[in-house]
Amino acid sequence: MNSSEIEASGVPSINKVKGVMKHDPILKPNPQDINWEQEIKAETLKRLGKPDKLIKVSACNVFDNNWRVNVWVNREVETEFDIVLSPTIPKGHSFFVTVRQGGLLEFNPDVEKLYGT
After folding, report:
1. Which end of the chain is more exposed for a tag (fewer CB within 10 A), N or C?
2. Given this model, what pLDDT does residue 17 score?
3. Cβ contact 67:59 at 8 Å
4. pLDDT tens, residue order, the chain (117 aa)
5. Same domain, yes or no, for 92 and 71?
6. Using omega within 30 degrees of 0 as the cis cutoff, is the peptide bond preceding 109 cis?
7. Whether 22 and 59 share a structural domain
8. Are 13 and 7 a contacting pair, CB within 8 Å?
9. Same domain, 50 and 72
């Protein structure tokens, strides 16, 4: 640490300390430094598995770290003339997720593993 990183009080600059802590391989990242939307989407697919006809996973912060997560898949629908793909959220593919203190994700209902990957 050089002298420009130490304030007049002799204490390391908060930006430097924050930078070290944020990238420390031992410490988990601070919850405010995490992209919760991406984290929740990834954890949902990890628990559920990846559907063959996955369109997208949507995650929206509804209020106070409470998220609605929907896993959209294509479903084949037979019509009079053809078989078409229709975007749908099948049963067991929609969740309410709460981010608890310390970054614990609480799913309601619990995510059941439905797919192998």
Report:
1. C
2. 42
3. yes
4. 444 444 444 444 444 444 343 444 454 555 666 789 999 999 999 999 999 999 999 999 998 889 999 999 999 999 999 999 999 999 999 999 998 887 889 999 999 999 986
5. yes
6. yes
7. no
8. yes
9. yes
DSSP bridge pairs for 110: none
CA distance 103 to 109: 18
Q: Which domain holds residue 18?
A: 1-33
Q: What is the rounded (10 degree) CA torsion for 87, 62, 50, 112?
A: -110
Distant-in-sequence, close-in-space partners of 72: CB < 8 Å, separation ≥ 6: 54, 55, 56, 57, 58, 87, 88, 89, 93
Closest CA to 44 of 90, 108, 87: 108
